[in-house]
Records
---
Amino acid sequence: MLKTYRTVQFTEYGGPEVLQVVEREVPLPGPGEVLVEVRAAGVNPLDWQLRSGAVAAMMPVAFPAVPGGDVAGVVRGVGEGVSDFVAGDEVFGSIGTGGCAEFVSAPAAQLARKPANVPWEVAAGLPVAVNTAFQALDDLGVKAGQTLVVDGAAGGVGSVAVQIARHLGATVIGTASERNHAYLRSLGAEPVTYGEGLAERVRALAPRGADAAFDTAGKGSLPELVDVTGGPERVVTIADHRAEEHGVRFVFAGAGEIRGRLERAAALVVAGELTLSVARTYTLSEAADAHRESEGGHVRGKLVVVPG
Ligand SMILES: NC(=O)c1ccc[n+]([C@@H]2O[C@H](COP(=O)([O-])OP(=O)(O)OC[C@H]3O[C@@H](n4cnc5c(N)ncnc54)[C@H](OP(=O)(O)O)[C@@H]3O)[C@@H](O)[C@H]2O)c1
C-alpha cells in the first residue's frame, strides 16, 4: 500500500486561499477507527466556517487541520476493537473533519455500509444532510397528513428533509429562489419564494397554515414561520442563532444516531425515494473553489471533492 498520500490542509484561519495540498504519511487506524481510502468527500458549510475561524470560539480546530466532515470510500485497515468492518468494505459517513484527502482514519461508529449501486459522490454528499434532516423531522414529530414548511429547501439539508418528509407522508412547502422551483417540484415539494411575505405565500397554498416548519437557512424567517404554524414549539432551526429570542428550538445533529440514519437513507436511495443533486465535483487542488462556492450560499444539493 502507499506510504504517503495527498491531503488538503490549513495551518491558520483565513479565506479559501489558506487551503493547500500536501503529502503526509498514511496513518494507522487508532482504536475504534478504520483507515478509509477516500473516493469522495462532501462539502458542508461547516467546512468553511471551521476554516475561516467563524466558529472558533465554539469549535476550535487543531492545526494542521484537514477539512471534510462527509466521506465515502473503501476500508483499507481496521484499528483495535473494530469488528463491524473489514478491509475492502465500501463505507460512507459523517466524521467531523479530515475527509478532504486521499486517506483518513475515521471513527468506525460514524460509518455505515454503502450499497454497491449508490455512486460515491452521492454517498459522500449524504451524511450531514441526512443526520440533520432526520434529527429535525424527529424533533418536530412530522407525520403523515401534516403540512411542513422547509425554508431553504434546495440546499443539502433542505433537499433531503423535503424527500424524507414526503416519504413520511407529509405535504411539503419548500422555499427557494425562482430558479430552483422546478427542482423543488421534482423532489415533491410545492415551491414558494423565500423572504418577506413568506407567511402569506404559504397561506395561499395552505389556507389553515402549516403544522410544522424547519428553517435550514437562518436568514431571519423565524417570526413568519412561527406565525404560519401558530407557535414557536412547531418550528426548529439549524442555522439561526437568534432562535432563543423567538422561543424556537435550535437543533444540533450529534453523532449518536448517525449509523442508523445513514442506513435508513441508503435504503431510501436504493428504493428510489431519496435522490441527491450533486451540483459540481472538484479535485483536491480545487478545494478552495468548492469552499468559495459553498460560501456563496446558493448550492443546489451538494458539492463534492473527488481525490482522483
Ligand atoms: N445545526 C446543525 O446541526 C447543522 C447541520 C448542518 C448544517 N447546518 C447549517 O445549516 C445551514 C444550511 O446547511 P446546508 O448544508 O443545507 O447549506 P447549503 O446546501 O449551502 O444551502 C444552500 C441553499 O440555501 C438556499 N438559500 C440561500 N439563501 C436563502 C434564504 N434567504 N432563504 C432560504 N433559503 C436560502 C439556497 O437556495 P437558492 O439557491 O434557491 O437561493 C441554496 O439551495 C448552514 O448554515 C449550515 O452551517 C447546521
---
Amino acid sequence: MALTFRGGVRLAEHKNTAGCPIEVFPAPERLYLPMLQHIGAPATPLVAPGDRVLRGQRIGTADKGLGAHVHSPVSGVVEKITTMRDALGRMVETVVIRNDYKAELIPYAPARREGNPTVGELADLVRDAGITGLGGASFPTHVKIRSAEGKAERVIVNCAECEPYITANHRLMLEEPERIVRGLLLLLSAFGVEEGILAVEDNKRDAIKTLTDRIRPYPALRVAPLRTKYPQGDERQLVYALLKKEIPAGKLPADLGCVIFNAETCAAIASAVERGAPLLERVVTVDGDCIVSPKNLLVPLGTPFSDLIDFCGLLPGKKIGKVISGGPMMGSAQFDLMAPVVKGTSALLVFAESRPEKAPLLPRCIRCGRCVAHCPMHLMPLYIARYAGAKDWENAGRYGAMSCVECGSCAYLCPGELPLVQYIRMAKTKIGEENRRKEAEAARRLAEAKGAGEAGNNKEEKEAVPS
Ligand code: SF4
Ligand code: SF4
C-alpha cells in the first residue's frame, strides 16, 4: 500500500509534460548569473568585466559558511557585473556573460582517490561543484552532507514532485535512473549506512518501475511508493510517510537519522564525484495555458525566463496574466521575465490573464475547520492568520506560526479565500526579526558582562601588585 501522511490535499495534477523527454535548450546569447542562487551568503565574483571565461569555470566563490560557488555554463566574455532582480524579487549581484558559442570547456577531472569518497571528501567535491538542493529550497548540499555526519542512518531520495505541472524529476527518473542511483550509492558509502530509499509518488508508475529495475543488484536500496497527495515532497511529510515518525518542531530530518536529497541533486552529486563536473544546468518544466509546446528542458543556469517562453511559444491571442517560477502552490510570481533560471528553478509556468478576480464565496472565516483538518503540520491556520492580522505576533507564535511550511494547502481549501499564507508569512518574518533582536540583545549583554568582569579582574590584579 502506498505510504502517506496526515492532512494535505488532492490537487488536479496537470502533469501535461510527463511524456515530454528532456530537450537540451540551446545556450542563449547572454547569461545572467546571480551570485545568490541558494540559501545563505552570496558568492563573491571572481571575474571582472572584460574577462574571458570558459564553460565550467568558477566565477563566484563562497568558501566560508553557508554558500555555494557559481560557475559559467558557457565560454564567453564577462560583459558586466550588475545588480538584478531575481525570481524571488531580491536585488542580487549578477555576472552577465556574453556567450561566444565556442563552448570551450575548462578541463575538469575527478579527484584522484582510492575507492569512494568519505563524508569530508564528498562534501568538498560537492562544494567545488557548486551543488545546492535542486528541489527548490537550494540549501547548499555540502553543508547538508557535513551536518549529517554521524547522524545519518538512512539516505532518502525525494522523488515525490508533488506540485502540479512539474515533471522535471519524473523525466530524469525515466531517462537517467542510473545517475540518480549512483549518487545515492555514493552517499550511502560516504555515510557508511545501509538503507537507501527512493520515495516516489504513485502517479509515476513508470518511474517506480524503472527505478525498481535499476536497483535490483543493490539489496540496500528500495523504492517506496507514496500516495499522491500534496505536499508529499515536504521533508517532514516524507519522513512521516516513510517512518511514521514526526520530526519535532525545531528539529531536522537528520535528528531522526534521515538525510534527504532531491533526485536531480543525487544525479548532480554523481557527476561531481565521477567527472568533477560543476553544476551548470538543470531540468526545467515549461508549461501553462499560454504555452504552445509545453516541454522539459535542460537549461543553462542564467538563461532569462523570456528565452524559455520564446522557445516554447506563446499561444496567439493569449495575454500573459501570471508567470510563476516553480509550482503553482509554492512558486513565486514574476514581475520581470529577465529574471534568470537558477539552481532552484524547477519550472516556469505561464498562465493567461486569470479569471476576473471573483469575490470570495464567503467574506470571512466561517470556522469551517477545513484549514485545520488539512494542515500537514497540524496547525490552526485560522488563528495564526487572525493574530497576524491583529499584529499580535506573540500569539501567532504561540499557535505555531514558525512551524508552517508555507505549503498553501489551507489557503487553497479556504472557502472564504482568505490569504492565510500571506498572513502566516508576515507573522514568521516578524517573529524571526524579534527573535534575532532578542539574540543580539542577549549577546550584547553577555559581552558587556564579560567586559565588566575582565575590567574588575584587571583592577583587582593591579591592586594586588605590591608597589
Ligand atoms: S478554511 Fe477558511 S473559513 Fe474555514 S476555518 Fe479555515 S480560515 Fe476559516
Ligand atoms: S498553516 Fe502552513 S503548513 Fe499548514 S496548511 Fe497552511 S501553509 Fe501549509
---
Amino acid sequence: MPSACVLTKYGPPSVLEWAEVAMPEPSKGEIRIKAMVSGVGPTDLKIRRGSLAAVYPLPDRAVLGFETAGVVDAVGDGVTGVAVGDEVAAQLMTLGGYGEFVVATTWAVKPKRVSWEDAGALPASVEAAVRVLRALKVSSGETLLLLGAGGSVGMIAAQLALRQGVHVIAAVGEHDEELVRELGATPVRYGSELLANVRKVADHVDATFDASGKGGVEEAITLTGDRSRVITLADERARDLGVAFSSYTPDGAPDAIAIGMELLANGELQLRSQRSLPMSEAASAHRLLEEEGAREKLLLTTAAAG
Ligand SMILES: NC(=O)c1ccc[n+]([C@@H]2O[C@H](COP(=O)([O-])OP(=O)(O)OC[C@H]3O[C@@H](n4cnc5c(N)ncnc54)[C@H](OP(=O)(O)O)[C@@H]3O)[C@@H](O)[C@H]2O)c1
C-alpha cells in the first residue's frame, strides 16, 4: 500500500501523520501520478488549522496538498495526450498532494530541463497568477499594484505582468526589495505607509492584485479608484470591502501550468527560493512555515525522487 501524510483532525502541525492509505484510482478524465515532489502552500496550513472548514469540509483521513510533480502511473477513461511514464506537473482540485500516489484532472507535461522541485512548486501558484491577471485585464502600459510580490504567487504574477509590458509596483518587505527590483518591478514597502509609499513612485494605479491577504486592500481601492479592478486571493474581508475574491475553478486558467512550464524550460521564470523535506515530514514543513517564519517555498519529496 502507498503512504501519505494524513490529516486526522484539525489542529497544530502534529495532526499530520504519515500512514498507509488505499491506492487512489483515476476516474474518467483523470490520471494517477507517482509523485516526486509536492508543494506546500499557505492554504494547506489554513485547511489544517480548520480556518477553511466551511469551504473544505474534510473527509476522515484527508490528504492535503494542491500540487504535485511526478510520473504518470495510470490513465483514466477518456484521457488523451498523456501516457503512462510521462513526466507531468499537476494541480489538484480535490487535494491529495501529500501522498506517494496522486490523482489529478489538470496537468501539463514537464520538459526534461525543468527540475522536479520547480515542477512541484509551480502549479497552484502559476494558476492563481494567470487567473487573476486575466480577470484584472491588465494590458501593456498600465500600472499594476501587486501586494505580496515576493511570495510564490506574487513573484510569478510580477514576471508575467512585466512580460506583458505592465508597470509593476511590488509591495514587499525590506528583505524582498532587491529581488523584485531585479525582476524589473518597482519595490515599495508594505505596511502602514503603503499608500504614501506607492504615491512616491506612481501618479496612478490602474489595477491591484492582492497576492498576500495580509492587508492593503483599502489603500489599493483608494489608489486604483475602481473596486472592479482590485482582486484578492486571500483577504476574507473582500465582500465587505466590495472587491472580488478569486478562487480556483477548473476553467479558471487550465493552460497556466503549461505556460509556466514553458517559461521555466526557457529560463524565463524565476520561482521563490525553495526548501525540501521528505514527504513523511510534512508536519515539520508546516511547523517551519507557521512557527519558525520560513520564507522559502516548502517542498515535500518522496522516496521515488531519490
Ligand atoms: N484563492 C486562491 O485561489 C489562492 C491560490 C493560491 C494562494 N492563495 C492564497 O494567497 C496567499 C499567497 O499565497 P503564496 O503561496 O504566494 O504565499 P507566500 O509565498 O507565503 O507569499 C505571501 C507573501 O505575502 C507577503 N506579505 C506579508 N505581509 C504582507 C503585507 N502586509 N502586505 C503585502 N504583502 C505581505 C509575504 O512577505 P513576507 O515574506 O515579508 O512576510 C510573502 O511574500 C495565501 O494566503 C494563499 O493561501 C489563494
